[in-house]
Specification:
Elements (H helix, E strand, L loop, with lengths): L3 H7 L5 H16 L7 H6 L4 E9 L2 E5 L1 H14 E14 L2 E12 L12 E13 L2 E9 L1 H8 L2
Parallel strand pairs: 1-6
Antiparallel strand pairs: 1-2, 3-4, 4-5, 5-6
């Protein structure tokens, strides 16, 4: 549980702010968890967002419901298999969190009009989150789809 290492080391309960920061960091890591490699597990994994939440990506702001999010994840995992996220950093400050991950996967299904190539891809992603309580209420996502496209086309 969040704060248990602090409690053992100090003999005291950790400050509430520290517990919340650890929880937010754990939530961010769960969003990029091992379920990505297993679409069936991803479809039933815990949902860490308000319903709906605001996604800001590619200059658009979209209100995403749980059903829309799970549908988008299903589309993504049908295009890329064996998805694994390599964590570079997760930083939390109050109700905000930021993360930098690299996705490793295989292009195994159609994506943006490109049929499966079987090629391995890597794609860096940065996402910034705003929490309401324990749930993510907004996400600002930065990813370069052109870098992915370049890896699966000649």
């Amino acid at each position: 549980a969040a704060g248990s290492a602090y409690r053992v080391a100090s003999g005291h309960e950790p400050p509430r702010r520290m517990v919340r920061a650890m929880h937010h960091a754990a939530t961010v890591r769960a969003v990029f968890g091992p379920e990505w490699a297993d679409p069936e597990a991803l479809a039933t994994s815990d949902y860490h967002f308000t319903n709906p939440y605001a996604l800001h990506i590619f200059g658009d702001s979209i209100e995403f419901t749980e059903a829309m999010t799970r549908g988008a994840l299903a589309n993504y995992t049908s295009a890329f298999s064996g998805i694994r996220w390599e964590e570079h950093s997760v930083i939390v400050d109050g109700d905000r969190a930021g993360c930098h991950f690299t996705m490793h996967a295989t292009h195994s299904g159609p994506w943006q009009g490109i049929e499966a190539t079987g090629r391995s891809i890597t794609a860096e992603r940065m996402v910034f989150f705003r929490f309401e309580g324990d749930l993510i209420a907004e996400a600002w996502e930065l990813i370069d789809p052109h870098a992915i496209k370049a890896q699966i086309t000649d």
